[in-house]
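Re: How this chain folds, sequence and tokenised backbone to follow
How to read it: Take the token row as a discrete description of the fold.
Start of record: The labelled sequence and token lines come straight after this line.
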Amino acid sequence: MSSRRKLGFESLEDRRVFAGDVSVSVVGGELRIVGDNAANYVNVQLKTIQGMKQFLVTGIPFTGQFNSAGDPIAGTTGASATLINGQGASFNAAATKVSISMGGGNDAVVLGGGTNVHEFAVQSLKANLGTGSDYLKIKTARVTSNVTTQLLMTQATAAAAAASEAGNDKIVLEGFNSPLAGAKLVMGGGNDQIIASKINAKGTGTSVIVDAGNGVDKMSLANAALFNVTFNGGIGNDRFTTTDSSFNNVTVNGGDGNDIVIASESRFANVVVNGGNGSDSVTVNRVTLNKVTLNMGTSAERDTVTVSNTAANEAIIDMGAGNGDLLNLITEVGIRNRTILKGGAGTGDELRIGNRQRVGASNPTITGFEIKPAGL
């Protein structure tokens, strides 16, 4: 008697990646967007809906993946959809303020931009993207009150914890106007990026403060008009660049690491750069300043400062304790009044001077350098 084997199919583990569920509501005129610990991607626009301006919140399919530039890669299947209040539909409502708290996981949030939209105008804006590697883009936006805009890429509250919290984060600002309020950006640990263009926070006393945290961090400013700017780089090889911008006061604290500061085609009232430990580099080209103070640090590494096509009223440059530091004054550098150039405590420091320089109106203080023509 033969026996028959019964064939069947064994269920395999479901490996589909589901995105999260975002809670959206309006409380007291404030649009509140709260994520969970999964990967979430939301787009928020201000549009005319049913004859009135309303915020439209839409979930985007997302598996928590970013491309090499740090931009989110949208998902392609329904399984990766970001739900809004447990549903696949968008949410719309009128509000005057926006508050975002995305929780854990890799998240992406885009505010403003798109077609047939209004300027993203709010009385106040607070965004905390939480732990994980996150992305925040704000486009054509305006904050109308004097409440400081908060853009936080970490959930940690203590400064030391925030600086070390992991996650490679990116903030993109394209057309951001906050003339009365300024902004505070806290990036947390990880290799982070801030790319800002066409931003305005130039009201008297307003400040933009950036705490980049530990890691290899980059901040670039273009077409910016800001009153006070402070960039705290933390531990790591950081890069701060600005072009075609105007500032009242700028302070760059590079922290430990090999840091790079580049300023071009810009106008400053007062600039202070503190290089910290490491081999640091400052490059200034086609800039006008009232006063510049460069403190290149106390470590033994070699630092480099290169200045060209620049005019300043006052300059104090201390190359620090490194050996073989290099101060390049290449061409068309004019310092009208008080000038102090110090080679620092190291040995073998060089001051290279090119053609058509004017260093100090009278009796400039130059110590600790071997002076050579530029180009050698």
